[in-house]
Amino acid sequence: MCGRVCAYTCAPAMQKNLEIGDYLAYGEERLKIVGFGKTKKIFSEEKEHDIISVYFPLSVAKEFIIKEGGDPVGNQTIYIRAVSAKKTKQLLKEVEKAIKQRMGGRMPSNLKPYIYENLVEEGLKEVKRTTLIMAGIALIALIVGGIGIMNVMYISVMERIKEIGIRRAVGAKERDIILQFLAEAVFLCLTGGIIGIILGLFTAYYFTPFFDIPFVISLSPIAIGLLSASIIGLFAGLKPAIKASKVDPVEILR
Predict the structure, then answer these.
(1) Are residues 100 and 146 in the same domain?
(2) What are the tens digits of pLDDT across the range 183-218?
(3) Same domain, yes or no: 131 and 213
(4) Which of 79, 99, 126 is the last residue of a domain?
(5) Closest CA to 191 of 248, 237, 230, 163
């Protein structure tokens, strides 16, 4: 077990000036350096900072950090390792119970025991919430796009009313007219979907290096997007196609 204190400072500069065996001022105490770990970085809106982390035994921490009613050097995190992964939740309950007993039956507001499994669960919940929000936005976009496709198909029917009348006069059936306009609506939606996928991939490929995120292409979302576009095209073009099929060729050719 060990205590850990993180201070936002320039860790590389300190490592250049300090060597193993030197002493580091830590609050009112002096700690002997026995080794260096890898430097970790965090990102903020203003600038990027390095974190210097100090590790020491819990027995040392008890002497000058874990003091009743005091927190002289800032925030601390105490890591406790369970005997096995299955015992982590039980260990968390025991830690909470011990803290409450020491603090008079209540959990301090500035002290929060947790296990990494809880952090993963919270992260998954946040991902699910974000997914639902994005799904809602996508659904609204699909509905708006479907309405736009329907209006375009209505305009197409009105502009090609003579063509429809001639086709009906030479023997085209209502089913043929419906299939023609449904195919056009689906083709229009698929074309827009393919263009959107290409733009999305290009945007992701261009911007992911700025956020240090790996660029990964997943085929399942692409397939689902094209399938959704096809379904929207079928529903959006159905009513205009039925209207086109009901055109009276005699009235049109008169």
Answers:
(1) no
(2) 999 998 999 889 989 998 999 888 888 877 888 888
(3) yes
(4) 79
(5) 230
98 and 202 share one domain? no
pTM of this structure: 0.55
> How many whole angstroms separate alpha carbon 164 and alpha carbon 242?
12
- Which pLDDT score, from 0 to 100, does residue 9 have? 32
Whether residues 234 and 159 fall in one domain:
yes
In terms of Cβ atoms closer than 10 Å to its own Cβ (0-12, 13-18, 19+), residue 59 is exposed
- Tokens 């050097």, residue located: 73
- 3-state percent breakdown (helix, strand, coil) of the chain, nearest 5: 60, 15, 25
The answer, yes or no, to whether residue 4 has pLDDT greater than 50, is: no
Q: Supply 52's token pair.
A: 């210097």
Domain that holds residue 106: 81-113
214 and 103, same structural domain? no
Of the candidates 23, 42, 43, 46, the one whose C-alpha atom is nearest the C-alpha of residue 34 is 23
- Say yes or no: 20 and 126 in one domain: no
- What is the DSSP code string of 133-145? HHHHHHHHHHHHH
152, with CB counted inside 10 A (0-12, 13-18, 19+), is middle
Main-chain dihedrals φ then ψ at residue 154, nearest 5 degrees: -60, -45
CA 78-104-59 angle, to 5 degrees, is: 30
| Cβ 6 vs Cβ 53: under 8 Å | yes
Q: Do residue 149 and residue 217 come from a single domain?
A: yes
Locus of tokens 């095209």: 233
Are 16 and 50 contacting, i.e. CB atoms less than 8 angstroms apart?
no
pLDDT per residue as tens digits for the range 149-164: 899 999 988 888 888 8
Same domain, 151 and 30: no
